[in-house]
Design goal:
506 residues; alpha/beta; Spore Coat Polysaccharide Biosynthesis Protein SpsA, Chain A; seven-stranded mixed β-sheet; 7 strands; 10% strand; globular
């Protein structure tokens, strides 16, 4: 029993130590951000810098949002003779008809629009982008996913930075069309705000590498070619290319104030699928580039930031291990005085809780310009809980990225939902449930039992943490199983059986 207890506690505190290192790094990101907050990137060019620009819209089965996307793209202020739009459509459903019609509509109004359809999805999004580049007229390419709504001044604000011939790419800041739709979208918005407000800004302005986010940004075509082009051996082709370009000596520029709204997933399975893809892709980039990064001539600061960015999702494997052993550790230490537990465990949990609270809480102050931001702080516990509930989904993604060669790009279904809950949806692209959902449900019951045990043995200090684990796994699993009800609420039609090949499995 003593050996078991010792082994359990060693593993327990080892996990807490590693997680605390990442918590401390989160606080370091805050320090870097506020140190460089006023170092706003200035464009090298002026309003007379008007090169040829190609806008690439890579879509796949986006019938719900394709018209909305195109309507916003054509509103961007740029000389028509200097603007080309490529609709790169790999769709297999009614999106093809709708996309062709919207292209014909705007072509008749004088816009240079190419509709490019592939019969196969070789390379998925990366393949579509490469295919479009073969005929692109622009010196620079802007890219928007189907759920993004570029603002009228996007090109006017982004393009002048390319007057500096060392700049490879520009990344804008994501905003959220439907932040207030439900609790899930509120929490997602805060998660993304932390990344786009603090992480991108801190890294870019401190001269470290940062990753292109795949949309709401632009690239210099010659930089894409110099870095080796869009490669499809990872499913986060955006991070892959941006790191390869920076390793070649190119620079990226992050424009925090260049805000582009986008639609957040409103149901849990779509959210899990998106997060799964990002985590798996980053693991693939680790396999592909981490050795090159560490042996490069980049600064130690840059190498460490690459490490913390790319390995962040690996912590989910530690979270799964922690979720398994935390309850046995609690039971094995049933006779330990509360003040001893406070002294040994307290600093770890305090550091992680404080780092999460400050990081994501302060992000809301930044995005709201210090107005009414405190009303969003009530979602921080939900954010912590959701992060725990995602652990199994993300751990599976990381393991797949490290140990499999599967590079299938699994899109996130878009419904055309706005903040008021209105939708232009014509079809429900369902994300089938996976076995992971039932494992999550098992963990929910496991932690419900642990809560009862903690109350019975009067481990009151453990109750809040056990509740976070229980609520996280319960929410993720129950809402995953309840997706059909959400589709019904949105008045969506079920995906026909003959379209079953267009569903997406995690």
């Amino acid at each position: 029993m003593d050996i078991l207890k010792t082994a359990c506690l060693v593993l327990y505190f080892s996990i807490l130590t590693i997680l605390s290192v990442y918590g401390a790094h989160r606080l370091y990101m805050l320090l870097l951000y506020y140190r460089h907050k006023k170092d706003v990137p200035q464009p090298a060019g002026g309003p007379d810098f008007r090169p040829m620009v190609t806008v690439q819209l890579a879509v796949f089965n986006e019938v719900n949002v394709i018209e909305r996307l195109m309507d916003h793209v054509v509103r961007m202020r740029w000389p028509k003779e200097k603007l080309e739009i490529q609709l790169l459509d790999d769709s297999t459903d009614d999106t093809v008809r709708v996309a062709q019609a919207i292209c014909e509509k705007y072509r008749a109004l004088g816009y240079d629009i190419s509709y490019i359809h592939r019969d196969d999805r070789t390379g998925f999004k990366a393949g579509a982008l490469n295919h479009g580049l073969k005929s692109a007229k622009g010196e620079f390419v802007a890219m928007f996913d189907a759920d993004f709504l570029p603002t009228e001044d996007f090109l006017e604000n982004a393009v002048p930075h390319f007057a500096d011939d060392k700049v490879a790419f520009i990344q804008g800041c994501w905003d959220h069309l439907n932040r207030d739709f439900n609790i899930l979208t509120q929490v997602q918005a805060i998660l993304l705000d932390g990344h786009f407000v603090f992480e991108h800004t801190a890294r870019n302005r401190s001269k470290a590498f940062f990753n292109f986010s795949g949309t709401a940004g632009m690239w210099r075509v010659s930089a894409i070619a110099d870095a080796g082009g869009w490669e499809h051996d990872t499913i986060t082709e955006d991070a892959d290319l941006s790191y390869r370009a920076q390793l070649k000596g190119w620079r990226g520029v992050y424009l925090k104030d260049l805000v582009v709204p986008a639609e957040l997933p409103v149901e849990v399975n779509a959210f899990k699928s998106q997060q799964h893809r990002w985590a798996k892709g980053n693991a693939q980039v680790i396999r592909k580039l981490m050795k090159t990064i560490w042996t490069s001539k980049a600064s130690l600061h840059t190498k460490l930031e690459c490490w913390f960015h790319l390995t962040a999702n690996c912590n989910y494997m530690l979270m799964v291990a922690l979720a398994i052993i935390m309850v046995p550790c609690m039971i094995l230490r049933a006779g330990t005085p509360w003040y001893v537990l406070l002294a040994t465990d307290g600093p770890f949990f305090l550091l992680n809780a404080v780092s999460v609270g400050l990081y994501f809480g302060l992000s809301q102050r930044e995005v709201s310009n210090n107005k009414n931001w405190t009303s969003r702080l009530k979602y921080i516990p939900g954010l912590m809980s959701l992060g725990i509930g995602l652990a199994l989904n993300q751990a599976k993604a990381v393991l797949e990225g490290f140990f499999t060669d599967n590079i299938e790009f699994k899109r996130t279904p878009k419904l055309g939902v706005d903040a008021q809950g209105n939708t232009a949806s014509k079809r429900a692209y369902k994300v089938p449930k996976s076995l992971v959902t039932f494992l999550e449900l098992g963990f929910a019951f496991y932690y419900f039992g642990a809560l009862l045990v903690a109350i019975y043995i009067r481990k009151w200090a453990s109750v809040p943490f056990l509740w976070l684990f229980f609520s996280g796994f319960a929410y993720i699993s129950f809402m995953s199983l309840a997706d059909v009800k959400i589709f019904r609420r949105l008045a969506m039609e079920e995906l026909p059986e003959h379209d079953a090949e267009h569903t997406f499995v995690q």
